[in-house]
Design goal:
- Six copies of one chain form a homohexamer.
- By secondary structure, chain A is mostly helical.
- Chain A contains seven helices and no strands.
- Chain A has helices spanning about 5-15, 20-30, 35-50, 55-70, 75-85, 90-105, 105-130.
- In chain A, α1 (about 5-15) crosses α3 (about 35-50), α2 runs antiparallel to α3 and α6 (about 90-105) packs antiparallel against α7 (about 105-130).
- The interface of B and C includes residues 108, 114 and 116 of B.
């Protein structure tokens, strides 16, 4: 039975990116189900659930950090989706990435923007042809 | 004579962190004045001056990125000041750093929070004893 | 009242590095006490408390990772202490760092070994002159 | 004629991951054969051949470092194989990666575990259908 | 109308890697055309256009940095092409990467050399069968 | 008795930065003398001693890589000295760092230039007052 922390985290995941969360949990189920639990309990139930920042702001700073680090493309794409679902516009995401050129260099910004383009395009295809 | 881009950047620097900017420009004057110019023109005049994100949001994502990267303490402290001057509360800055534990690990979050504590303390001393 | 997870984490911290933990918790108390709680609950109560690796092995991999990352000197030193307290010898710690030259380059290995030397020396002074 | 150091390194490579070593040496042969020599001589002949840590421990710390760095997927997979061949269990490798969530963040741990899953699956296929 | 800075940057891009630049600008056109402008104006018009280092030296240090960082494969490949077009030999590029083993570890050097091999091979194919 | 590789490496170290090398070897003597040997044998005897790049070019790419990585200040300063001793001008070193703003962000460039300023200043003091 999921803990209260996990429930709280899952509530947030359902708001910001239910598909990525489900895909991750399915991927991890056979090999490291406890990591799924830690994602729900700690990352979302303990951290994202805190007051003090809006979910939109939380997704913005995550997109910034993942763009600057430049070594976690799948998570960057998931959080671009999460940012859009939390109220960011596409242009705001582009702005975040342009600014990362200043702090992490142009390659990080370029690769971030190309990831964003892929996410934006996939969403438009999905909206046009919902499954 | 400063370019229009530099003027626009300096206007923003005067809003968010005039003291750090002045200290940096003095430090660089004898060795790399063009870097000061690029900071004013490109980082602030071209990027921070863009519409699309508020200065408060821009400083929040910079604080997030520098905390996650964990290798630029002087710039992190300057941007904690910049975030406070742009409308962030101390608690919002702490929230950003707590969230970085999820994306860059606990050492990055801890070192970010210790940097924030030093900035917050120095500001309280300065407010009590303005020069 | 501390959670069962925090109690479990604190038990481990008392075994591996009670002084660093106490210093960290004191440092964070006024600014981010929840981070201390997450360290105890998640880092130690959820992760280090797991079966599957010995505490000595857990400290060895942490020392390796922090040496390779090269941007968290205070945490590296704490975990060198933790490794020694968990059963690593000084020579084993040096071996970890030499090996990191292969994966993260010579500067990371050199800076790791200099950190280890400082820790080893401080411990010898403390043993000679216990407080 | 290979040096004594290269021979010593090749002996270790034959124990821990002969297939990856062979694939790497073939890949490098036409372009940088000296790098193959440095891998055999320095990385394995000078470092891994040292007493002080077991091969299993050496592979564990390498897996930890590569997971934390998060930017060398092919080498991470090779060393997951090397860890298994040196006496690590699959569960021990998962534990290493879970712990890296604490020091390098959740994306590093997740991407490490997905790499491990791919390695574990490929080995099961190979065992069922040996070539 | 492109600025003088953009013109100056485009002149350099035409010398060192017109195809990559055109591909990047096409990729960014629909999503972040200002980033293309910043690449031309700042990266090439302000920085690469400076006296003090030759274009060959500028490409060499960029190849070194991108190899050491290890998280921007597309840009590394573009700058390997740029280095060749600026007067570097293939062997000089291999030397740069071998040296990065010392400063960023063997995985960074190996992945850099494999990227170089792909670039060198593609150029030979193109020279044999020009489009 | 030092190996031929170590002799070859020491010859290069005597050309480019004998003081840093001696200080490092003294520091490591009591704790990890084999690391000093690997520095002399592998880093300088195997890599820097190779033909294909001049020592000046080798130091330039090292300064670029260490500036971009941003987490090894002592080594960066040593190699700024090494670059000057190998024929780089102060202005060339500044140019390297300015260019790193493009690939690793402004904080890396700024911190690199401040390190360079410290090195340049210390050398001028030493030249004015030789010991």
């Amino acid at each position: 039975m999921p803990s209260e922390r996990a429930e709280r985290g899952m509530d947030i995941l359902r708001q910001i990116n239910p598909q990525s969360a489900q895909a991750l949990f399915s991927e991890l189920e056979s090999i490291a189900p406890d990591l799924s639990r830690f994602v729900a309990e700690f990352a979302y139930g303990d951290i994202y659930a805190r007051p003090g920042l809006s979910l939109r702001e939380r997704e913005m700073i995550t997109v910034a950090a993942l763009t600057a680090q430049g070594n976690a493309a799948p998570q960057l794409k998931s959080h671009i989706v999460g940012a859009l679902n939390s109220g960011c516009t596409e242009q705001e995401i582009i702005e975040i990435m342009l600014q990362m050129a200043v702090y992490a260099g142009f390659p990080a910004a370029i690769n971030g923007i190309i990831a964003a383009k892929e996410v934006f395009t996939a969403r438009k295809v999905n909206e046009a042809h919902p499954t």
